[in-house]
Amino acid sequence: MTKVSLIGAPTDIGAGARGASMGPEAMRVAQIGPTLEAHGIEVFDRGNLQGPPNPWLPPVDGFRHLHEVAAWNNAVHEAVHAELKLGHLPILLGGDHCLGIGSISAVARHCRETGKKLRILWLDAHADFNTAVLTPSGNIHGMPVACLCGHGPQELIEIGGKVPAISPKWIRQIGIRSVDAGEKKFVHEMGLEVFDMRYIDEMGMRHAMELALATLDENTHLHVSFDVDFLDPQIAPGVGTVIPGGPTYREAQLCMEMIADTGRLASLDVMELNPALDVRNQTAVLAVDLIESLFGKSTLMRK
């Protein structure tokens, strides 16, 4: 029986808008626990992690709230790593996407300890590959992939004990449609594999996902980092950085179902859900619906 652990990380410490701190509770209100239990999954809700409050200050040396971001990510790292050690599948309920640093560094550490390969699917409107030099805002939720690849402040790149925590070759980014000019150049330099919305428009979600999931084997740990702004804002308005032109409901379902078909999903982040900007919790309900598909709910009566 699959054992899933829910870990709430109620902070918007790395974001440019307040409200993602309410994300974990919105997911619980949308019945994430009972929904997974209905599929024969054993769910352990570990409650919420603790961390410093959001001081809402301007950036210092190119980073906003660096000390607080590091504290939250260290807490996330320890919590996610502990669940993986127990053989559970951790679902991190964010919180803003800066927390991907703690979560994915924990997964990478677990893979080093168990001799597994790692594949990361980054479902997002943004590449999140900024650095202090490239971004004027200093919001660290735009930097987690760069930090994980070793480009960022010591306090963040050293979480998990190995720099860089991951290789850019392990990442597949899907749904990208908003990238800063300097960031785009950096993404190309680092060789990230990106299936942006133009690619999905031209080739279709199925083809993008076939390539993103290619060469997975039984020794591969598959991690999905799902930023809710991946979805088109018409169906998912409850996010802080709304970028039109994302995947439709059906495209998102296909994406999740194809991940489920691999049988390799081993850890999940659900990030940037902002109930303060949502309409009657519809984005949280949709996120739970898509997570249900990730865990095997299929629209077709598959044999």
Describe this protein with a few key phrases.
Ureohydrolase_dom_sf, eight-stranded parallel beta sheet, Arginase, Chain A, 303 residues, hydrolase, single chain, alpha/beta
> Can you tell me the CATH architecture?
3-Layer(aba) Sandwich
Uncertain regions spanning at least 5 consecutive residues:
none
The overall pLDDT, averaged over residues, is: 97
Count of distinct strands: 8
Specify the helix fraction band: 25-40%
- What name is given to the CATH topology? Arginase, Chain A
- Helical segment tally? 11
Strand order of the largest sheet: 2-1-3-8-7-4-5-6
CATH class: Alpha Beta
N-to-C span: 20 Å
Radius of gyration: 17 Å
Beta-strand percent range: 15-25%
Q: Estimate the global geometry from the Cα principal axes.
A: globular
The CATH homologous superfamily corresponds to: Ureohydrolase domain
Overall SS class: alpha/beta
Care to describe what's here?
Belongs to the arginase family. Pathway: Nitrogen metabolism; urea cycle; L-ornithine and urea from L-arginine: step 1/1. This is Arginase. The structure is a single chain. With 303 residues, the protein is an alpha/beta fold. The chain has a single domain (3-294), classed as Ureohydrolase domain (Arginase, Chain A, 3-Layer(aba) Sandwich), CATH 3.40.800. It is built from 11 helices and 8 strands. It has an 8-stranded parallel beta sheet with strand order 2-1-3-8-7-4-5-6, sandwiched between helices. β5 (171-176), α7 and β6 form a beta-alpha-beta unit. α1 (23-29) crosses α11, α8 packs across α9 (205-212) and α9 (205-212) runs parallel beside α10 (249-262). The longest helix has 20 residues, at 66-85.
